[in-house]
From TrEMBL:
Polar residues bias spans: 59-69
Region annotation Disordered: where it falls in the sequence: 1-24, 44-88
Native species: Gossypium laxum
Protein's UniProt name: Uncharacterized protein
Amino acid sequence: LKAPRVKKALGIPEIPDQPAATASRPSIDLYSALKQTLQQARTAAEESASVSAAPTKVLNRSTPSSAVNQRIKHLEKQVKGKKKNKKR
């Protein structure tokens, strides 16, 4: 069907070749874009955590030990979750 004579014999209209529009578009590296986005999200989360960690140190002086222990357990769970994500 690619030969022009066959197309004429079968009555198939000729379609002019169009320049490849996809070749002019820059290719997007999805992996690097995703990696960069995740890295930005992590740094933003770490910055917000470090900013919010400073005031909690002042508050921990007057909090009961049970609240401090609960906070420690929560932070340990967060660290374990981050370590699991790094292995993947």
